[in-house]
Amino acid sequence: MPKRFENILPRRDSDSLKWNVYDADVTPMWIAEADVRPPQAVIDALAARVAHGVFGYTAAIGHLSAPGGSWEYPGIAEVICARLKRLYDWDVAPDALVYLPGVVPGFNVACKIAGQPGDAVLMHAPCYGPITKGPINQSRRPTYAPLRREISFDGYTHFAHDQDAFDAAVEKDTRLFLLCNPHNPTGRAFSRTELQQMAASCVQNDMLICSDEIHAELLLGDAFHIPIASLSAEVADRCITLVSPSKAFNIPGLGFAVAVIQNPTLRARYMEAMQGLVPSPQIFGYVGAMAAYQHGDEWIAAAQAFYTSNRDLVCTVLRTHAPQLLMNRPEATFLNWIDCRQAQLPTNPKEYFVNHAGVALADGSGFGPAGDGYLRLTFATQRAILEPALYAMIESLRPYS
Ligand SMILES: Cc1ncc(COP(=O)(O)O)c(C=O)c1O
Hints:
Elements: H1 17-20, E1 27-28, H2 40-52, E2 63-64, E3 71-73, H3 76-88, E4 97-100, H4 103-112, E5 120-125, H5 129-137, E6 141-146, E7 148-151, E8 157-160, H6 163-169, E9 174-180, H7 192-204, E10 208-212, H8 233-236, E11 239-243, E12 257-260, H9 264-274, H10 283-295, H11 297-321, E13 326-327, E14 335-339, H12 349-357, E15 359-360, E16 362-363, E17 374-378, H13 383-396
Parallel strand pairs: 1-15, 5-6, 5-9, 9-10, 10-11
Antiparallel strand pairs: 2-3, 4-12, 7-8, 11-12, 13-14, 14-17, 16-17
Helix pairs in contact: 2-10, 3-10, 4-5, 11-13
The chain binds pyridoxal-5'-phosphate (PLP).
């Protein structure tokens, strides 16, 4: 297991949301954020940019050696498009990219351009909390297609796209499907077949698709990611795909994301809706993203191995010592989704583990209608933090086992 991620970093006195919401004796495993330093190239690029000392507005424009010549200094658009081609064999032209200070504003803008106020927006249930808030923020009606839960032969929960539930949830005025792939909180990297089913319904019912793919490069084991827009030109035509280096390279505080919108009419509508509300990414987001995408490949492979071994640790320890907690074995993300209902805890599970184990997890009730009784656990931390937290949870369950 890569040792470079095992040093515990002092985070409490660093304006960290993750580490400062709870008291110092509580281990924070609630927000989807890692406790690792990004690639050294990112830190160096940021330091060089600080030393430059001029912090103007950004422009995603590279320099050509001569008209029609090679890139002397590629702009971020070229770097991102080359990455999408290399990772997913997805052909995206640089002018299809719209720059954003985060993914959350990205799916809110998608809701804003979906039909009229009052129209329906469809999501899977459960789903990442801020996605479920997007339609409400933009005066649209949230509707849900529950994922199908199965129990695998080795006792883990497995969540799958349920086409019947999806079709039943599409209403006359459903204008947008907000997809999260890989899926937060269940850790699914949806298969080509599942994505094709979702896409076919959206084409048939003339719905836009906004796909939040922020976790795309957080793949565990041998999992792989398929951007839904890469399925076909017909699907791409109705897609807004949100990509960002912030989860995979652990730079969420830098605030950088991109909406890939290949249909020029849709892109123009989207950019118009951003006017006056959504600023460009700031300079450090731009510099951090550029360095991560250009120089972070070896780092990301090591980070994936680190998260995979943490996933295996959490799954083995909790399945062995706390079988009353039914849990998934994620294919992507650094999140476990834990069903606590069989544990019959005397209070809300989140409060229970904060008060009796000193471990803060995210309350499942924040993940849409299918989240009650669940907790989400972020395992992207050092083993010296993770292991004691898991055993404190197990110990706290003793009166109920
Ligand atoms: C699925 C998903 N989308 C978006 C975000 C946040 O994106 P941003 O910080 O770029 O707005 C998160 C953070 O946890 C996430 O898990």
